[in-house]
């Protein structure tokens, strides 16, 4: 039953082909068996999952099951879960049991979904390879020597290995789309403000957005229906109605105008990845779409812009981790300064410290204008580029990442090389627009992702466009041989 | 009027006042703001800065800030922005304070103060911005440790920043008192200085009289009483003049006032100052205030202290001084107006009645409250009882002098004036015959003085008044006594 999409599982549960408890037990078995191979989970919530499965079975028996009742999922360990450790992949929060649920967790719980556990991630979501996690790297299910991408590497690997059919994730500069691309699964980063950030541990507040990693666009639509919406506890969430994302999945694509981002087909893109992307585009042409080349001239500035804005916000957001109220505290601090220095020095990993220092620097007196203010101005230009492009086309397409998954350790000593992995994804975060990555083929035996971006609040259109492709192709149904069997 | 002569030096002072806004809940969370609860019982996950929590702005705090802005004739910004002020301290749970930096909600206002010589002076208000308060560190009863109480963390504040317009400690105190009065009139701050709801920092510098450039300033932190403001500034001015006259340089620094020693001492220099790394808070949207909102707030403004004082002068005929005293708090003004109205039998008070009421409220009553360290709301003589006493003066039942004794008795015994006049037999003697009899007796007992008076020593008139008053137990009607005595002494 592990190969089924969420939509298929929903039908089978309703048809009583198996119970929620049977499904949950089966997946918990896969979670446990996959751990030594993938390390995709930080915490497994077995007893809670079985209790919730029982409740879901009762709901089915009573005829009170909703569209998501009993469907399994995993949460990225950045979402606060009441009574369960919420580590954010950091030693700093290794001992932190959240006293409350994130809005996203609360909503999906209320919809009756069954949480299997919390997935591994780069520390505080800072990384593109899942190597910065305090809990060790996650391995790519397609090849255990390779990274799964990051920061939502655990969520992407879990879905790719069919250990969980869907997982929540977050995306600050590509952290949903890049691992989805590298693991051959579907990922959606909604519009900034579409999904509540309350209870989602902040990395860079103006860029962070919660979303999903799933097998298919249809599955993403089902879960996003329950996850999206205004939250009075998050001032940056937007109070516009949430459409039924499932209802418009099958709208015809005839007349769709697809913009090809010229800046993305650059010399940094590997040739076989480009070939996959071009083939995917031809599928769209067959479906009646027109391809139009568009230019977003400021987009190449997105990496340097991002690496000013995101560290600046992170340096301030992570100041609360001071060893005083919760989280890691050093042994026997001799005074206040010692408490701060050693708690933070020992509690944070190298990449987090690098970004805190960069962010502190760019906000400092005398540098603020040259870095932070300038970056904000460039951000406006990038925003205008997207706006202008969406005046001409319905969606934008291009590669999600410049290449397929790379080896563990290959880029971990070179931050710049690592940062360049997000070169195609960061723009959408800076502009706040929704974007997806869907599997569109293989290069050197490894998955390639097609990126689709749309105007603000165009999630329904993106899901519709992605679903149309997935009806024509089966890339999203491929799974790695090592995880093909039911019993691992 | 300028500053007192200080050997050719001029003092320049600007104040930063922090007023806690009396909202029910905190500025960015739903926790209660009440003072005095057990440590950390009024701090929720947002106040404690748990991972993942977010601030949500309390609209009431914005409304109060706008109210203040309108009351000081300031501009209300159509768009203001919250920024993060970053620094580490255990009572600052997020590691940053949410404040306003480049775009405050209120800018360019002013406040008029009255100087000792009666002239008016306008003090500019540069800006007033919204921010959250920090928690408190506790050291008592915790050997080798520090406790943190985060009840106050997130309490809304407005920081009111003045222009460097004040030229003496007295002016600074007058301005501070004026702002204190205003925020209580507006009911946006309880003004309690002991509990820290109203506190101020003073920027103090000196320069040669006539110099255009300001001297280097020192910032004196957290002064929590009017008396300390005056003392701290005077100490600091003398210190700076000393430094300069002995050939030294004043360094820009933050200094702390020590009320026990009556001195200021250095806390940190400019070099040691924090770089707060301000930047717009990405968790909060800019605050957009439209004209309708401002108009709505304007409609809730009460009669302001200056407007009230002006009315007391123009329609009740009070002196500017009395009007100033009586309008120093909304409650005192209301008390006064009630006394005057009762004295007038529920109608508009005549100028005489208004003056009588003003003399007593600003005089004996204010003195008694002051002596017992009570607020007008805690008075032991309510407006109806004071009006009762003044009625007995007005209808000549007792003299003003006897009234003071009656007032004393009312204060201590908690009874009304009539009961005390009755029980102590203090009713004024208005019977002409009885007064004449007393005069005759006094004249008979003092033939020498009588002779002297009649030979031209007019000053002895007072002696005779005193003797008759003594003989009648002070109850003789003074006006009648005056008339009759004059006639009798004349022979």
Structural overview:
The complex is a heterodimer of chains A (488) and B (491). Chain A has helices at residues 6-14, 20-38, 46-61, 103-110, 153-160, 177-183, 217-227, 271-286, 302-317, 336-347, 350-362, 369-392, 415-419, 426-431, 459-472, and strands spanning 41-44, 72-76, 114-119, 166-171, 186-189, 209-214, 257-261, 290-294, 395-399, 435-443, 446-453. Chain A has one domain: Amidase signature (AS) enzymes, CATH 3.90.1300.10. Chain A is globular and about 65 Å long. In chain A, 38% of the residues lie in helices and 13% in strands. In chain A, the strands form 2 sheets. An 8-stranded mixed beta sheet of chain A has the order 4-6-5-10-11-9-7-8, sandwiched between helices. Chain A has 488 residues and is α/β, with parallel strands linked by helices. The mean pLDDT of chain A is 97. By secondary structure, chain B is of the alpha+beta class. Chain B has 3 domains: 9-297, no CATH class; 305-424, no CATH class; 432-490, Orthogonal Bundle (Arc Repressor Mutant, subunit A), CATH 1.10.10.410. Chain B has helices at residues 59-71, 169-185, 226-245, 291-298, 305-316, 320-326, 330-343, 351-371, 383-394, 400-413, 417-424, 432-445, 447-454, 460-471, 478-490, and strands at 9-20, 75-76, 79-80, 82-86, 96-100, 106-114, 120-132, 136-138, 147-149, 156-162, 198-208, 218-223, 253-258, 263-269, 279-280, 287-288. A 9-stranded mixed beta sheet of chain B has the order 2-6-7-10-1-11-12-13-14. In chain B, a hairpin with a 4-residue loop joins strand 13 (253-258) and strand 14. In chain B, helix 7 (330-343) packs across helix 8 (351-371), helix 8 packs across helix 9 and helix 14 packs across helix 15 (478-490). Chain B is elongated. The relative contact order of chain B is 0.09. The mean pLDDT of chain B is 92. Chains A and B meet through helix 9 of A and loops of B.
